[in-house]
Amino acid sequence: MNLFGKKSYVSIDGGERTKKSDKRRQKAEPSIPDGMWIKCNTCKAIIYKKEVTEYKLCPNCDAHFRMSPAERIAVTCDENTFEELDAGMRPQNPMSYPEYDEVIKKAQKKAGIPEGVVTGRCRIHGQDTVMAIMDSHFMMGSMGSVVGEKVTRAVEYATAHSLPIIIFTTSGGARMQEGIISLMQMAKVSEALGRHDEAGLLYVTVLTDPTTGGVTASFAMLGDIILSEPKALIGFAGQRVIQATIHQQLPEGFQRAEFQLEHGFVDRIVHREKLRDELGKILRLHSQPEREGTE
Amino acid sequence: MSDAMKSVAIARMIERPNTKQFIAGIFDDFLEFHGDRLFADDGAIVGGLAALGGIPVTVIGIQKGHTLEENVACNFGQPNPEGYRKALRLMKQAEKFHRPVVTFINTAGAFCGIGAEERGQGEAIARNLMEMSRLRTPIISIFIGEGGSGGALGLAVGDSVWMLEHGMYSVLSPEGFASILWRDSSRAAEAADLMKMTARDLLQNEVIDRMFLEPKEGLENNLEYTTAEIKWALLETLPRLMKMDLADLLEKRYQRFRKFGDFVE
Q1: Do A165 and A203 meet the contact criterion of CB atoms below 8 Å apart?
Q2: Which of A150, B4, B16, B117 has its CA 20 to 30 A from that of B41?
Q3: Are residues A191 and A275 in the same domain?
Q4: Distance between CA B141 and CA B82 in Å, rounded?
């Protein structure tokens, strides 16, 4: 169950006692305040938080930590160009799942946003695009009605305005608490992408850690160009499910971005610090002739 | 046992008639075609050309076996990516020759294995969803047993979606649901009720458009009763869909799936 439940990094605060002693130490010497250390879940190194830049990389092993949509927008879009769409959309409870309201409230508090995806339009290197960014901190980026509807509307908006769309994926799969309605979101987003495709418009997927289940089996794999961040876990089935099915050890690096590149399902693996420039280049090389020079 | 769990048990019975039996009962002159032209022929999905009262139809379905030997040959009805790609190849063929597509769904889910991941299970299903949503010929999808998640949806983006009385369709199995959300797989019956996965529930929330009652003596004991009903329904529906303006047909299919979602603004 908690296969993807880990945070990418955890605060090392030793509880009440350390806090007190830290406070004492602070008075005595200019030492590092509590909560300023984090642990990289990849290399296990203890790192000083201030060494982590806005790109959220491990300074020791270069692991790409999971990002929130706000952090993603900050390093991807031209400054102050992101205009959010459908910001107020909130989930209902189609299956009358017990305590779904509380689960949602908890997720909202944890992620600081009302649902698992942020959509909008923005500019990258001066070029207009629609963008959707999923958030793994919100119920593991699971796709329920709101995620499906917001992404579908973003795609339809892009089609209506003849714009490209870039989707940053991260998801554990369908939102089980919404039952069959969550499954239907896969068809809904895919058909909207079909119309965007028929209009001759560009769709770029950026796969980030982790992208699995129903999102992989729908819009994550439908990009004209599919980029991935290094070492991101990308797959259809969860590793525990596969292991339980075949009773075999899974190979090293199974379902990672590099595995997907080797098997032909990813166009390019792009380091996060280069992503904005690559996206800018891709958009520029797909821009309509009459738009050139507006930049 | 709850009604939902009863239906789940019936849908999974090894005696339950499979896709090939439905094809034989409904269509004439079935010619099975093999392979995805890319990698292999997946025994979990059968497909080919058949006639329905003189109308050429492309028929595709997920195949389960009645014996261990049969089940090994069809991987217990759990398709690999090449199965979904074979299905898409046959659907594109149907589009080219302007014949309708009928799909039969009966799977616990798409296969979860190393090879399936290496060959892009997610990509194969995703591609089917997008291509089916815009296939320029009518599609009818019929759930005859289990309908497990994305592996079922990958053949079920139809103009009309039908289901047998004891069919089921869900985002994951009731056992999986109970074990993931409640860490207790013994609460599967409770999960089955909550998940609204039976034909009657699905009819109510419009995930399916039509339900076929099964004979009292059991589908396996009187398959002719149900295949006759389905044949009659297809003979009534397909010519109507084939006469429809293509743009209208595609718009209706789009709206059929576009409407799902429960949210407030």
Answers
A1: yes
A2: B16
A3: yes
A4: 20
Residue B51's SS3 state is strand
CB contact under 8 A, A242 and B121: no
Total residue length of chain A: 295
- Strand duo A46-48 + A37-40: pairing: antiparallel
Assess whether A48 and A121 both reside in one domain: no
Based on the fold, state whether residues A251 and A281 are members of the same structural domain. yes
- Quick one: which of B86, B73, B74, B79 has its CA closest to B35? B86
What is the model's pTM?
0.92
Report ipTM (2 d.p.). 0.97
**Checking DSSP bridges between strand A203-211 and strand B160-164, what pairing results, if any?**
unpaired
Whether residue A217 and residue B265 make contact (CB cut-off 8 A), yes or no, is: no
Residue A209 backbone phi and psi in degrees, to 5: -75, 130
Give the range of the structural domain holding residue B81, as residue numbers without chain letter.
Answer: 3-139+153-229
- List C-alpha distances in Å: A258 to A173, A254, A270, B212: 21, 9, 11, 47
- Tens of pLDDT, residues A206-263: 999 999 999 999 999 999 999 999 999 999 999 988 988 888 889 999 999 999 999 9
Q: For testing the chain A interface, which of B75, B82, B85, B123 should be mutated: the one with the most A CBs within 10 Å?
A: B123
**What 3-state DSSP class applies to A230?**
coil
What is the number of structural domains in chain A? 2
Q: By C-alpha distance, which of A178, A179, A163 is closest to A287?
A: A163
Sequence-ordered strand ranges (E) for A1-106: 9-11, 37-40, 46-48, 83-85, 90-91
* E strand spans, chain B: 28-32, 45-52, 55-62, 101-107, 139-147, 160-164, 210-212, 263-264
- Which domain covers residue A130, as residue numbers? 66-291
Question: What are the Cα distances from residue B101, in Å, to A72, B96, B221?
Answer: 43, 12, 28
Round to whole Å and give the CA distance between B208 and B144.
12
Q: What is the CA radius of gyration of chain A?
A: 20
Question: Contacts of residue A93 in chain B, CB cutoff 8 Å?
Answer: 262
Inter-residue contact B63 to B74 (CB < 8 Å): yes
